């Protein structure tokens, strides 16, 4: 089996999160199939010649790099596999981006990926901020390669204008103007930097050989994580867990094994174990605190003071990644900072809508859509919530993650959010269908007795089936303490001319803070 060490792509990768397991996406599967020769094809003469020109000009042997064409990855990728430096190119995708016959387009892209190898970027994982710096270093190298191959400075602008870029410096890749500036700097300073970069290359490769064994352990853990996420097979879970624990026991890769192991337990819908792993991290940072917050919140447990202090001091603009910013928005919502939550959610939605959704990790999209739709329901923006929660449901239905426990749990939760939104927007036909589809899932008795039963009663009430609604609300209230259900039961009694029973329910609801019930009590009841 071949092990992928660290992937560097020319464009925005599939995962936005700063510290989540970006290697465990659809992109990893596509890369795996290519590097194992299942989907690779022979590279064109122009790419092969381009690689030869570059390595010859900078004094390296072409045997330093292996190039494969992979027409499924929609990217250009630098990666180390079993100690070999690979360049993986989706030639079809690149040809669609290239608006000219100028060979500089392919030369720049190949040089950029070679630059990742020469700068040692493929030797270790990095956060978004570091990744952006590394992308600029690779662009710098590509700029000086174009100069040595007699390209023009205008070629740099032409190439980079044809490549997708983010609008803000918050993800793994820099914005367009930064890339053009640094590549032009490399072009202008070509002779000064060449020996420095090549020397760094030799130093980093020596380091890579020393670290090969521990890197393979991390990649084994990640590969098995991915297989568990896809299949739900607990053998893959246990094997991945053991490799992560080995890395933790050997104090390798800092906090990365802790965070990824905590995600593994979350995939198994085991928030308690996820919390235990995260609590082992020394000096937790903002990202650790956010992950802990989400776990504690799911378990409906109070947040430890140390974690609450970190959360309350977070500067929102310092947090990167779709998953982490979504959790931060939820934290703001639950602590009364609604406007801050709204600002983050709206910003993330804009970024997603302006991006190619195929290049965003599906799991992170599901996580965002499900949480954003819940937020919209709290703001009574039900029509938009219908659209957003439907996006989450559709993604889950078409994803490869249905076999893992956490996504299955989110699936049920999304039906709840979707149904609430349909109720709020008075779309009772779709609500009836949603409840039918929701009931087909493997619901626990508690799930049936809580949200599902309440929404069924509300649908019966709103569609005039008040006698059925009375029975449903009565059953629901036998199992749950919910003054809003008392209020709606009172309304159903009123429709059926049972004033005394109605007033009793209004009185309970009013005493427990339902203001509308107090108004009904005053208008409809003598006392």
From TrEMBL:
Residue ranges constituting the Peptidase M48 domain according to the UniProt record: 128-180
Cofactor needs: Zn(2+)
Family annotation (Gene3D superfamilies): Tetratricopeptide repeat domain
Highest taxon of the lineage: Bacteria
InterPro entries in the record: Peptidase_M48, TPR-like_helical_dom_sf, TPR_rpt
Annotated protein name in UniProt: Tetratricopeptide repeat-containing protein
Originating organism: Algibacter pectinivorans
Keywords: Hydrolase, Metal-binding, Metalloprotease, Protease, Zinc
């Amino acid at each position: 089996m071949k092990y992928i060490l660290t992937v560097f792509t020319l464009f925005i990768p599939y995962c936005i999160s700063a510290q989540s397991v970006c290697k465990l996406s659809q992109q990893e599967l596509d890369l795996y199939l290519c590097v194992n020769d299942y989907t690779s094809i022979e590279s064109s003469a122009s790419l092969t010649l381009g690689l030869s020109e570059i390595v010859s000009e900078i004094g390296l042997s072409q045997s330093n790099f292996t190039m494969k064409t992979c027409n499924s990855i929609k990217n250009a990728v630098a990666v180390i596999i079993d100690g070999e430096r690979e360049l993986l190119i989706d030639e079809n995708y690149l040809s669609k981006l290239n608006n000219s016959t100028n060979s500089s387009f392919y030369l720049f892209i190949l040089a950029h990926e070679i630059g990742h190898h020469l700068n040692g970027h493929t030797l270790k994982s990095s956060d978004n901020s570091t990744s952006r710096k590394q992308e600029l270093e690779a662009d710098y190298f590509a700029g000086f390669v174009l100069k040595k191959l007699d390209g023009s400075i205008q070629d740099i602008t032409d190439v980079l204008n044809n490549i997708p870029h983010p609008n803000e410096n918050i993800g793994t890749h820099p914005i367009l103007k930064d890339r053009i500036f640094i590549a032009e700097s490399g072009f202008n300073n070509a002779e000064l930097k060449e020996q420095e970069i090549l020397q760094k290359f030799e130093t980093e490769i020596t380091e890579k050989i020393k670290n090969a064994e521990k890197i393979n352990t991390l990649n084994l853990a990640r590969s098995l994580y991915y297989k568990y996420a896809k299949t739900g097979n607990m053998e893959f879970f246990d094997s991945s867990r053991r490799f992560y624990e080995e890395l933790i026991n050997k104090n390798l890769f800092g906090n990365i094994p802790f965070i990824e192991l905590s995600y593994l337990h979350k995939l198994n819908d085991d928030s308690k174990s996820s919390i235990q792993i995260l609590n082992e991290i020394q000096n937790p940072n903002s990202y650790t605190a956010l992950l802990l917050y989400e776990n504690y919140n799911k378990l409906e447990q109070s947040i430890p003071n140390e974690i609450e202090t970190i959360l309350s001091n977070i500067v929102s603009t310092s947090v990167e990644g779709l998953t982490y910013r979504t959790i931060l928005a939820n934290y703001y919502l639950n602590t009364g900072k609604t406007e801050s939550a709204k600002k983050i959610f709206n910003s993330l939605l804009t970024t997603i809508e302006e991006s190619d959704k195929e290049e965003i990790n599906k799991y992170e999209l599901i996580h965002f859509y499900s949480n954003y739709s819940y937020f919209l329901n709290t703001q009574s923006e039900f029509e938009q919530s219908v659209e957003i929660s439907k996006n989450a449901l559709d993604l889950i239905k078409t994803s490869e993650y249905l076999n893992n426990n956490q996504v299955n749990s989110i699936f049920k939760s999304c039906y709840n959010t979707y149904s609430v939104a349909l109720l709020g927007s008075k779309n009772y036909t779709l609500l009836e269908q949603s409840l039918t589809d929701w009931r087909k899932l493997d619901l626990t008795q508690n799930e049936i007795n809580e949200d599902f039963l309440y929404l069924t009663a509300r649908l019966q009430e709103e569609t005039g089936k008040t006698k059925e609604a009375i029975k449903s609300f009565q059953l629901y209230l036998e199992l749950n303490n919910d003054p809003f259900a008392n209020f709606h039961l009172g309304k159903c009694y009123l429709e059926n001319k049972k004033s005394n029973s109605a007033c009793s329910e209004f009185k309970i609801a009013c005493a427990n803070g339902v203001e509308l019930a107090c108004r009904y009590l005053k208008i409809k009841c003598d006392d």
